[in-house]
């Protein structure tokens, strides 16, 4: 009888291990397939709204933004080398609040001759933007959170996917950050190479910036506050309130830049 029990022990032990493994496997949640949606069809700008300083919303002054060969381009061929502070943005047609956004970008050619020195190889993705229909005629930038995109100048170190805050503030390491721009930990990317950028946005809780799949910056609690150049009393009254969502726009700041594979995954 004792011998028989000894023989049963290994069998019961093996059965117990198999049962535990099966139980653990059943507890692993099944991940949902990611359904990324293309925001740019590669053919036209029908789903986008243009607003350029000095011009009414909807007017694509000098064909600043064009769709060509599957790429959304910031195009200055009709500017005759004179930018005249015509800062522009192109907004996707609807707002978002909880999502992952990704695309590829690259800087090309040369900056317009009268563009600001800081705007050389400079563009951005503006998230949590105010409604483009409410932008003032002479307003430079929307109240928003900017994921600043910078290209290297061939010599100096110059991070990309930085943070700039037109009319907003954020928190980092438990403290309110009121400086206008904060650098990321990214590498410098010189030349005209395509760079992948992704942003994870969790309403008014946390925002993360990724470059080529590497996390380079994160911050918390986006809120209204700071300097604005339009409708000051309105935005002053909202100071300290959380920014929970808004439009997404891409910038034109005097240097040609291209965008492609523009997609979003709502969470």
TrEMBL record:
Residues 36-264 form the 3-keto-alpha-glucoside-1,2-lyase/3-keto-2-hydroxy-glucal hydratase domain. It comes from the Bacteria. GO terms for molecular function: hydrolase activity. Transmembrane segments: none annotated. InterPro entries: AL/BT2_dom. This is DUF1080 domain-containing protein.
């Amino acid at each position: 009888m004792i011998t028989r029990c000894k023989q049963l022990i290994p069998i019961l032990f093996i059965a117990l291990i198999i049962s535990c493994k099966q139980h653990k496997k059943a507890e692993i949640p099944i991940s949902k397939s990611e359904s990324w949606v293309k925001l740019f069809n590669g053919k036209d700008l029908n789903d986008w709204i243009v607003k350029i300083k000095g011009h009414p919303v909807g007017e694509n002054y000098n064909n600043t933004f064009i769709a060509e060969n599957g790429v959304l381009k910031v195009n200055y061929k009709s500017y005759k080398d004179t930018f005249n502070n015509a800062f522009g943005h192109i907004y996707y047609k609807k707002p978002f609040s909880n999502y992952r956004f990704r695309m590829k970008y690259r800087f090309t050619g040369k900056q317009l001759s009268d563009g600001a020195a800081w705007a050389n190889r400079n563009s951005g993705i503006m998230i949590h933007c105010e409604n483009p229909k409410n932008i003032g005629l002479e307003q430079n930038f929307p109240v928003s959170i900017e994921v600043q995109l910078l290209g290297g100048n061939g010599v100096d170190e110059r991070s990309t996917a930085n943070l700039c805050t037109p009319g907003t503030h954020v928190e980092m390491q438990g403290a309110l950050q009121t400086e206008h721009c904060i650098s990321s930990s990214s590498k410098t990317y010189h030349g005209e190479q395509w760079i992948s950028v992704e942003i994870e946005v969790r309403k008014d809780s946390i925002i993360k910036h990724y470059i080529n799949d590497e996390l380079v910056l994160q911050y918390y609690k986006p809120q209204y506050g700071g300097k604005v150049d339009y409708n000051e009393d309105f935005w002053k009254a909202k100071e300290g309130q959380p920014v929970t969502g808004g439009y997404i726009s891409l910038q034109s700041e005097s240097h040609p830049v291209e965008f492609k594979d523009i997609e979003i995954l709502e969470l």
